[in-house]
Amino acid sequence: MPDKLDSDIWKLNCKNGVVDIKTGELFPHKQEYYIRESTI
């Protein structure tokens, strides 16, 4: 599992969802993203 943590460098976890910084799209939070940190 450690290899899955933060594996997608283009996803940014925000309060209102997950932003794909390549496309600008906002997605709902999902556990499958394995993002450890978040913006404030």
Keywords:
40 residues, Prophage Lp4 protein 7, mainly beta, Phage/plasmid_primase_P4_C, 0% helix
Report on this structure.
With 40 residues, the protein is mostly beta strands. It has one domain (1-40). It is built from no helices and three strands. Strands 1-2-3 form a three-stranded antiparallel sheet, with no helix packed on it. Strand 1 and strand 2 (17-20) form a beta hairpin. The chain is globular, with a radius of gyration of 10 Å. Residues 2-39 form the Bacteriophage/plasmid primase P4 C-terminal domain. This is Prophage Lp4 protein 7. It comes from Acetivibrio straminisolvens JCM 21531.
What is the oligomer described by this structure?
single chain
Order of helices and strands: EEE
**Could you say which overall geometry the principal axes of the C-alpha atoms support?**
globular
Report the major sheet. 3 strands, antiparallel
How would you briefly describe this protein structure?
By secondary structure, the chain is mostly beta strands.
Indicate the topology.
Blueprint: E1 11-14, E2 17-20, E3 26-27
Antiparallel strand pairs: 1-2, 2-3
